[in-house]
Write a structure and sequence with these properties.
67% of the residues lie in helices and 4% in strands. By secondary structure, it is mainly alpha-helical. Helix 4 crosses helix 11 and helix 5 packs antiparallel against helix 10. It is globular, with a radius of gyration of 25 Å. The two termini are 36 Å apart.
């Protein structure tokens, strides 16, 4: 008789890059049922998801626009996760950067764009760092779970934004809950004429490259990766784990804050309460889909941007609910996480060991003989 045994095993190196592709195929197969329930053809739906947005200049540029904040939040989450710091607060840190951008954008009107734009980006970075500071200190000083604290602070910043938009920053003319428009010199320059693509996309790409350089070419990156693999082992090797975690948390928050700046200064030009449709949480999907590899994260951000644009395309073309794109993203995260976990295990058929009629016989392996 044989039985199926689950055992730990190290997957070949060539398997890991294939995991996102396999996860995407499995996700589309699973969600095809939802497309059928919506009375649409799955193949036609996925054509509008993945191909149609790239078939015209306008929609292809829109994919890049959607990908811009995703590049930054994906990089932010990846930076923290690489050090074993589970930052679930990129959403709140994005809003903190957006608040800073909305404030700075209204007081920098007398400065030229060459000064106003860098000041806004720096202000958003600092705001994101400050919003990430408290959970990081609680983590390294009191060992408080950062998943809980960073997640709770996301709700706190939403109430702060709601107070500002319904109080001192409410538009006095229209009465809409939105901040005053930022100065024109503080707006991010457009990369293409008559298109929404702005300088934030280039900044996102530069952040991805900087992330790769830090993680793979600097001593800080080595310490972060060592800490992420095992904090106790890193301490034994002489790494200052608390300092490394604090650095990773603050830089991660700062990058997420820059995503908020890109939305205020590049798209909306004022602060609104729905400036992020969950970009911070989508950053977790991007980080995992990219395997915490900076360039993989960049590709994952572009892919999620494609899905986001495709969700609107398929809704218009086939009448499928636009929220199907969100369902696909959520399923993609779960499948990707499962795939990364399962790569450390394998299934093997093994023969059952013969059972002994005597416990003493099984223990000694010798036959009992009468005196």
């Amino acid at each position: 008789m044989t039985r199926l045994k689950i055992e730990r095993a190290t997957a070949p190196l060539w398997v890991r890059p294939l995991i996102p592709v396999i996860a995407a195929v499995i996700t589309f197969t699973l969600t095809a049922t939802l497309v059928i329930l919506a009375k649409a053809n799955p193949l036609e739906a996925y054509y509008h998801f993945l191909i149609a947005p790239l078939s015209s200049r306008v929609s292809a540029i829109e994919v890049l626009v959607k990908s811009t904040p995703l590049l930054l939040v994906g990089a932010a989450v990846t930076f923290a996760f690489s050090a074993g710091y589970w930052n679930i607060g990129a959403e709140g840190q994005l809003y903190a950067g957006a608040v800073a951008a909305a404030w700075l954008g209204t007081i920098l009107g007398n400065l030229p764009a060459l000064i106003a734009v860098p000041v806004m980006l720096l202000g958003g970075f600092v705001a994101g760092m400050l919003w990430a500071l408290t959970p990081a200190l609680l983590k390294i000083k009191l060992a408080v779970d950062e998943v809980v604290t960073t997640l709770l602070l996301n709700t706190v910043i939403l109430f702060v934004v709601s107070y500002l938009l319904n109080g001192p920053w409410r538009d006095p003319v229209s009465g809409w809950p939105q901040s005053p428009e930022i100065a024109s010199s503080a707006m991010l320059p457009r990369l293409l004429p008559q298109a929404r693509l702005h300088l934030g996309f280039v900044i996102g790409l530069l952040v991805i490259v900087a992330l790769w350089f830090i993680l793979s070419r600097t001593s800080l990156g080595l310490k972060m990766r060592a800490t992420g693999l095992g904090m106790e082992a890193a301490r034994f090797a002489g790494v200052n784990v608390n300092r490394t975690i604090l650095t990773a948390a603050l830089i991660s928050g700062g990058i997420a804050g820059m995503a908020g700046v890109s939305e205020v200064a590049g798209i909306h030009f004022h602060l609104i309460d729905a400036i992020s449709p969950g970009y911070g949480y989508t950053g977790i999907i991007i980080a995992m889909l990219g395997g915490l590899n900076p360039f993989g994260v960049g590709l994952a951000a572009l892919f999620i941007g494609l899905l986001s644009t495709g969700g609107q395309t398929v809704s218009r073309a086939l009448g499928v609910p636009a929220y199907l794109g969100d369902v696909v993203q959520a399923a993609l995260l779960l499948v990707t996480l499962g795939a990364f976990i399962l790569q450390n295990y394998r299934l093997r058929w093994v023969a059952n060991e013969p059972r002994s009629s005597s416990p003493l016989h099984a223990a000694s392996g010798n036959e009992l003989k009468p005196d």
